[in-house]
Amino acid sequence: METRIDFLEWLEPDMAFKILSCLDDSADLVRASAVSRYWQNIVVSNGLSKQLCMSTFPQLACITRVVGPSHENSSERDHRAYASLFWALTSFPLTYCIADPVSTSSTDNYPQESIMNTLDPRDTIRNRGSYWSSKGSNDTETPETLIYSLTANICVITEINLHPFQALFQFDFPIYSSRFVRFRMGHPKSCNDLNYDFVDAQECADDKFIWTYTSQMFPVIQQNRLQRFKLPEPVICIGGYLQVELLGRVQKQASDDKYYFCVAHVQAIGRQLSPAFSVEFSEPSNNVSLKYDAEKFGLTVSNGQNGSLSTSLLPVQPPRQLAWGNLQDFMQIVEAHDDGVEYDAWADELDPIL
Fold it and tell me: Taking the CA of residue 44 as centre, how many other CA atoms within 13 Å lie in the half-sphere pointing to its CB?
């Protein structure tokens, strides 16, 4: 038989680790861990999948532990969870991620001009009531905030869209846009704080949240159209809440000579990771646990997409280099080879993927 040598075993352990840590795709790390027990030990015991996730998505640094199948040891569980998480973060389909409104800093003429109207994409020219309005202010620098819950408590947001409202029922058809907009994402300080209807009570919930991400200020055009604000990098929202902050009032209402903000529609576009992934906060320490359900992840992959996703109205996206269908192959590799295999068998199995 032909003699074959594992070149990594001829190197110092630190050098072997350094070589494998250069892999920048979780699928490659999973493939590497299937080569042999030696390679698997380097990948799994050093947590290379976790390191890749953390370096690519710094927001994950707050996660203190992974909760998964009880039959696995912690290293194996973390390896599988973070390898699958990386794929989900970069490959799950884009969808609309806003679920429900939580609160506003003010509302004029409630409930006719409620934040609830901002979830309705209908034509505001024909539907006079489909917008939210702030209260009026004499100060153009008085900000306003809108808070929404997202469709999952862990998801990736890539862009947020805002449609300023034009009042076609007023003289000169004014557009009540802001000069700038800024976005924050985070989680509640306490789940008990949200057992309350802030919208109906017309109370602001800004102080009930810890905002772990704050965007730059984006300029808003005073036009009656949906305006897209693409984030510089995809942002993982751990906790599932989005704040839209409107800055700089530009339009005065003729009837009372005060400045207003009015918004017709708000969208958040990204990737929701449930039901395969979710996060859990431990009070009062606020430790964050990542909950990984391998079975649901496998069902999501085998179905080709999450059945709850709706992407038919999304902006057209360029084709991805990594096809969604390859996730099924990836999942099969993740679930196989608990103890590592010899190189020949591993190479034969991966040949159709590569």
Answer: 25
314 belongs to a structural domain: no
- Report which of 148, 147, 151, 159 is spatially closest to residue 273, judged by C-alpha positions: 151
Residue 260 contacts residue 251 (beta carbons within 8 Å) = yes
Exposed/middle/buried for 18, CB within 10 Å: 0-12, 13-18, 19+? exposed
The DSSP element (H or E) to which 74 belongs, if any, is: helix 74-91
Mean pLDDT of the chain: 83
Q: What was the pLDDT predicted at 70?
A: 64
Considering the domain architecture, whether residues 20 and 75 belong to the same structural domain is answered as yes
* Preceding omega of 275 cis (within 30 degrees of 0): yes
| Domain co-membership, 117 together with 222 | yes
The reply to whether 84 and 207 lie within a common domain is no
- What's the distance, CA 126 to chain centroid? 33
The total domain count for the chain is 2
Indicate whether 161 pLDDT > 70: yes
Q: Are residues 194 and 71 in the same domain?
A: no
Domain extent at residue 250: 95-272
Asked whether the beta carbons of 45 and 75 are under 8 A apart, the reply is: yes
CATH number, domain containing residue 134: 2.60.120.260
Closest CA to 184 of 156, 222, 143, 215: 215
Mean pLDDT in residue range 56-76: 84
First-to-last C-alpha distance (Å) of the chain:
27
DSSP tag of 175: B
Residues 313 and 336: their CA atoms lie apart, in Å, by: 37
**Nearest residue to 205 (alpha-carbon basis) of 227, 184, 182:** 184
* 238 and 143 within one domain: yes
List C-alpha distances in Å: 278 to 20, 68, 194: 29, 11, 18
Indicate the pTM of the whole model.
0.81
pLDDT band with cut points at 50, 70 and 90 for residue 124: very low
Domain-located, residue 290: yes
Give the count of beta carbons closer than 10 Å to the beta carbon of residue 172: 7
Cα separation of 249 and 137, whole Å? 9
How many Å apart are CA 268 and CA 290, to the nearest integer? 23
Q: Does the residue 79 lie in any domain?
A: yes
